[in-house]
Amino acid sequence: MSEHQLQIRDLTVSYDRIPAVHHVDMTLRCGHRVGLIGPNGAGKSTLLKAVAGLVPLETGSIRLVGHESACHDHGTAYLPQRSAVDWDFPITVRGLVELGRYPALGAFKRYSEADARAVDEALEALQLTELAERQINALSGGQQQRAFLARAWAQNAHIYLLDEPFTGLDKVAQADLRRSIRALADAGKLVICSHHDLHTVPDLFDEVILINGELVAYGPLAGVFTPASIDKTYGTRIFSGHPPHHPPEGTDDDLAH
Known about the structure:
alpha/beta, 9 helices, single chain, 3-stranded antiparallel beta sheet, 257 residues
């Protein structure tokens, strides 16, 4: 999977000529769970939207290398913060997941048995089969997040961009979502989540991006998620000693501390 990469080169995005993120340069490999970390106003949401193709670039480029799909050609799925979604829209979980198949159908193709199988696979992968006929407004917060992940799975997305997906979830829902994100990475997907709770970062991610307008550091937790790098990102001392522990891979420690 190392040849499957998201390459970001000299990326700058500005609003009213004021840079929100500037000159970001990094390469991320598929098969990883990446935490996007930084203070409020650091440009985390802007970076996610740029990768998703939702905001124009002032400078730079974004490429998905090693896949047949282009970065913005159904290969990237963006999941906004839950507060930005109209959860009262009348649609079932299956109906939401089916929406992931339609971009690839185009104007003349019909929804096929293969599409139906892809939807069933997505529901099973995200453990939503038993909830398939339930309205999305009847789901818990964690189930709603997994329903959107299932839609992206049905879309055959390679890159999953999640904006604060753990906000407002209880410990059980956080644990379920954590397992889903791990399953996506194990399936060769690249999952990038903006996240604000520093104490849970080692439980959720195997790599991090530290950003505050500009890129501070990125890479594996052990080398990047250090007190010095975190303090540089936030401009103040965050941890008096070592940052939170790095649990062994494969454990399901409690997410809340």
